[in-house]
């Protein structure tokens, strides 16, 4: 497989507030989508120049600026300054190794979530992509590394005014975007769970591959990875729900509570799967021991039966001049008979021990 | 056994508040029972048309509307709108993968519990069925997938005015329905506990089947499943008991505290059984090792006794021309004697080592 | 041993507040002791008719009514009604599977504790018996299944006015009864601890019986059983101590704090013993592995020495016509010498490996 | 080693407040030291009669009465009554199985700590001795079983007015005594840690004695014992520091916080050592398995090489009349050659498998 | 490797507040750097005489006094007295076995952190060096054992007025110094993580060295060491952030929250690596068992095939006079054929068992 470890970029020694992109997608094109909507109309624009978005700030409509391409730190800094965002927030937006968190500032909320998906091109590993939200009074800024199609459905709803999105504020927009992300968590954990249950069925059916311990270790790691993302996300939503805040209206709070319930369930599922993976290791260890037992029994049975018989044959293969039995006419058959008796006795003994 | 995994329905991408049934019982008939009762009289009606229940809302009696058939989302939506229930609640009612929870709204409580039973037709697996309650000022709506006979006793009590149910409010009705559910938890955990204790006795008596680790894994999984349902249920009751609320009267609170005590006990029992199952795995592993030890001892004894004897026989089976012992008249008997001495010595050695 | 599992009585479906005895001692005689005492005098009566106790309620002395025989639900119900006890409390009193708990009502406290003792007639199992207390302003009701001699000392103190019991209120009486129960916990845990330490010494001295894992499992279970009783008892006392309450006077609180300290210590001891039992299992598993190692070494040494020698003997037992060595006069002795060298070499090799 | 278990004295059934010595040192002489000091002068007296200490109560100096000999319950009771100490405190003082705790009374604090030391005469076991403190407004009473030299340095400081002890109150005196005790904890844990690290180095270097599991179990027990004393001590200091209290002045609080920091560190060290001991057991188990593997390899190699060769020799040792190979002149050498080829082939095979 | 254990200096029995250096670097030169800066100018001086720093106290600029050489206790005491620092703080500054902590005094904060680095000259062990900070209103004192180059970048920023350091107070200076330390934690944990993941890949690829358990134990210990430093550091920052305090301004608090986020992430990473190391041990144990299984299979196959064949050869090697088969012309070939049949049968049997 080789080691294709993603070497983290070293930020040590930089001035705090230095806005440095820490990801790998250096060549991503900057791509900016703007939705500026009210209940009765909406504007959609696709831009590649950050200054073109500035005009939307002064509208009384809800403005959603969706920035793809965290490598364009200059543009992000300009946008941030225009919206008066703290430099530390800008630093965090482009530092893709953030954990899910929420920071409350006077005029806006900064929320980091992680999109989780299974990378089929890389051993079905669980991969995460950071999504940053800045929620202001009537605007929402979102930042991520690459074009994400997971928000397409939300865009459609704004365009067609499906659901209540056009009638509500930026807080509700943030909610449906987060809800979309959490729905993906649910799917991912379902897929993980199915994999674990299939594997468990295999083990229960006795089909234990030699590299089962690798599979178990891999499953454990995937579950741990998902856990690292989902558990702090729960805390993020919990803080939104608990600390009442002018930016999140009372109407929207009910919806955030709904996401919270989903996340609690996902967290519980993850912990159940985690415990199941641990049990699988126990199961696997006991199956190895059982196999060893079986191997040892075969050896013991074969050796215990034939070693004594071979000894008897050895005795009558000795070349002493005076061995009276050798002369008896039926001695050979008698000895063969004795051997047969020993053989049958041994087999019965092992049968009684339930080794056969 | 095959994989008959219940593939969850994918809800990703739906508009929040979309009311979509996520269960398997698509063809369930809609069946609605209505009890409208006061201390001195009661009305019982079985309906299949949701509009027929609307008239009961305006009565000053306590109204219990028991809806069987979560697949009939339209009817549920109509009823919900009639009672002014939040769309997210309606969404949760028909989404059968909810965990036990309580959501407090201004005029009503939404409570999800899970009925637990052992499905004898499916390997004695622990199966759960979601039961939704909406408790209003003088009404209680309950929703579940199929006809449940567990509420029959409650219905009888309303009919015959047994106990105090007819004298108290909808909060007490909710209590006795929950109490019935929790009583089933108690039974289920007792059955699980008996199974575990029987199995433990078997292992202690040395009757260890080859597939014991499968049984242990299965028991563990059943205990975990029950735990996932019962523990959040405890939290639900705790929140009812703690957060005083207009909908639950002071009189009824004492009764909810009683359910809470039961649930605490069930939770403790579950954790004890969980620990016992873990101990069983240890026990089982040590029994495998002990068996292996026994097998190895048999092999070692047989090999250690007969291999040296066979060697001696081999020596006197050599064909050298000049082997003076071969000529001695009693050499054969002397060698046999030496062999007997070695044999007895070996046996005594193993006896002293307590291997025999 | 057979399965003499105590099948729990099924209470499912009963009306809440149904007073049903759930124990086994159906034929227990009803036996009521009454102590009605003040600092300067006391009355003691042994009754079998519950109505005879009613007269004591109106006295201004402290009244202790000690009821033996939970199977007499009618009498308990009458007494409960006379003292105006909530039906749920009466239900709990006769339901012997309660866990230790405290319920606070307006005019009285309901406390459940469990007496713990070792049943020598049943494999030294740890057995518990439920003791119910109802503490009112100047009365204490206690209920249990059978005559308990553990309270004899307390009765003596009332009779002889030893200590301060006659000078203080019902809260102090409850304290000394609880203190007696907790003293028994201390003893029981000491006995368990001694058993575990003896067993540990045995294992450390190498005396490991084949059924050691059973003993360990049994010890673990006993510790768990004690834990299930003692830990919630600690919470009960803690709640008495914390939530100041009119029924427990300030003077008595100091004493309850003392019980609490004892219980904390018992809890810690239990957790230490629990950890020691877990270590014993590790210890036992390592001893099994060590034994197996020893067995394997014996086998390996015997086989490694004699199999090559037998091979050499086999070579010179071949019947080829032209085998020049066979004719040499000293060939036999040379071969024997070579065999001796191999033998000694092997022994030295195993000595160096520390296998001998 | 024999069982020299210290049988606890049974206090069950005694009247609460009974002052009964529960230790072993029944014949300890009563020995009382009194220090009565102010900034500018001090009195030191060694007494054996408790009444002689009464006169110091009325002085306006700080009085420290250090009582050696808990078996003299009468003297302790007299002193207690003179200082108006609650009987439960007196009971606890002479009951040496207390855990570290603090009880706050109106006019005094009762503190129990445990001195920890390693008993070199008893297998280097960790032994504890109870030290009781009663801190009043301007007095400190201390009680312990035997003469402790650990307080000598403190006495010297009072005598020589070294440090600030003479300038501060009884709260500071209690602090330096506790500080001395905690310093001994630090030492003890360092010694335990060194032992564990030495043992770990041994195991890492491959020097694993057969009784390593005993050593590990012993180390684990010592760590657990220290833990049982040190952890509740931390809580004691924490409560002193947190709950502001008239008896502990603001100046002294800074010093108690310092002890608290030390104790937190000791607790952490203990938990690290505990985890290291657990790892040692894993390490040891894996080393046993590795050894077994090595034993098995030797056996397998010897048997796999020589058993086939012996079979070939056996074939040509058969006595059939017509076995043409036997007549060929070079057959013997050819067979020997074939055997050599098999031998070398086997060795190469095991080399490739890395078993040799 | 030998035991080069760092013997802790024993401080037992010293007067509290005794300022005693507990480290090893006794011969370190005293080296003092002073930065006295405002937005528009700064002074930098390198001194070796502590009194030379006193003049900076009265300036209205921000003063940073960086003291290298904890062995110079006199100088530190003088500086401490000049700034009116509590003796216990001075004691802690030179006692290098402090854990990370924060102590709040009226006019200053005392903070202990630990620098973590990997000592490549000592088996890549994780080594820590204590760094003490005393933060006053407009000064910051820092103390450590030896010259640390990790602060060079900070010094440069003061000199060149890069970033906002010159515009803000001493609280911000403390922040950037701490941030530098925490950045080193991040690097260290990344290096540890890479080592663990490389090792895991090796094990997954089957390259398991014999001393893998040593490596695992070592990794575990390193992770534990890092954990002991990083976790209390998180609490330190948390307390700075939570307890609002005059010394840390509102502006700086946002920055401390940023460090806190970093530390939370480092803590999570450490716990993930800790769990991964535990899994590695399981993995390793299962790989040992698998290897043993393989060894046993080879032995069992060889022995099971050739022992019966050798027995047959033995039978026809017996010297009975009357053994009719010996005379048959083709008997030899028939027996060889039977042997071949047995051989093939055995091979097929083991193939079916998947042992071959």
Automatic annotation (TrEMBL), chains A, B, C, D, E:
Q: Which InterPro entries match?
A: CorA_cytoplasmic_dom, CorA_TM1_TM2, Mg/Co-transport_prot_CorA, MgTranspt_CorA/ZnTranspt_ZntB
Q: Where are the transmembrane segments?
A: 298-318, 330-350
Compartments (UniProt record): Cell membrane; Membrane
The protein's UniProt keywords, in alphabetical order, are:
Cell membrane, Ion transport, Magnesium, Membrane, Transmembrane, Transmembrane helix, Transport
Q: Which CDD domains match?
A: TmCorA-like_1 (cd12828)
Q: Which Pfam families match?
A: CorA
Bilayer topology reads: Multi-pass membrane protein
> Where is it predominantly found?
membrane
Q: Which family does it belong to?
A: Belongs to the CorA metal ion transporter (MIT) (TC 1.A.35) family.
Record's function text = Mediates influx of magnesium ions.
Provide the protein name: Magnesium transport protein CorA
Starting at the broadest rank, the lineage of the source organism is: Bacteria, Pseudomonadati, Bacteroidota, Flavobacteriia, Flavobacteriales
Gene coding for it = corA
């Amino acid at each position: 497989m080789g080691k294709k470890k993603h070497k983290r970029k070293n930020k040590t020694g930089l001035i705090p507030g230095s806005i440095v992109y820490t990801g790998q997608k250096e060549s991503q094109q900057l791509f900016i989508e703007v939705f500026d909507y009210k209940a009765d109309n909406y504007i959609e624009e696709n831009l590649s120049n950050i200054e073109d978005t500035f005009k939307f700030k002064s509208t009384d409509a809800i403005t959603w600026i969706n920035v793809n391409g965290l490598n364009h730190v200059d543009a992000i800094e300009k946008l941030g300054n225009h919206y008066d965002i703290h430099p530390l927030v800008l630093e965090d937006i482009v530092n893709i190794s953030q954990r899910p968190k929420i920071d409350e500032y006077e005029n806006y909320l900064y929320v980091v979530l992680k999109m989780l998906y299974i990378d089929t091109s890389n051993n079905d590993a669980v991969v995460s992509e950071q999504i940053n939200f800045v929620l202001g009074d009537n605007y929402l800024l979102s930042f991520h590394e690459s074009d994400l199609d997971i928000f397409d459905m939300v865009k459609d709803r704004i365009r067609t005014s499906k659901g209540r999105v056009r009638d509500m504020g930026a807080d509700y927009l943030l909610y449906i975007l987060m809800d979309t992300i959490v729905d993906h968590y649910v799917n991912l954990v379902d897929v993980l769970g199915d994999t674990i249950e299939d594997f468990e069925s295999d083990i229960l059916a006795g089909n234990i591959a030699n590299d089962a311990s690798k599979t178990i270790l891999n499953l454990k790691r995937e579950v741990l990875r998902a856990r690292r993302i989902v558990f702090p996300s729960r805390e993020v939503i919990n803080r939104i729900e608990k600390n009442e805040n002018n930016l999140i209206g009372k109407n929207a709070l009910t919806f955030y509570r709904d996401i919270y319930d989903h996340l609690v369930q996902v967290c519980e599922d993850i912990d159940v799967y985690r415990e199941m993976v641990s049990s699988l290791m126990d199961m696997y260890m006991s199956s190895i021991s059982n196999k060893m037992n079986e191997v040892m029994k075969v050896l013991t049975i074969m050796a215990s039966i034939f070693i004594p018989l071979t000894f008897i044959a050895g005795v009558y293969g000795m070349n002493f001049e005076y061995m009276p039995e050798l002369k008896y006419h039926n001695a050979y058959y008698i000895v063969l008979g004795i051997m047969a008796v020993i053989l049958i006795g041994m087999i019965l003994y092992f049968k009684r021990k339930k080794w056969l």
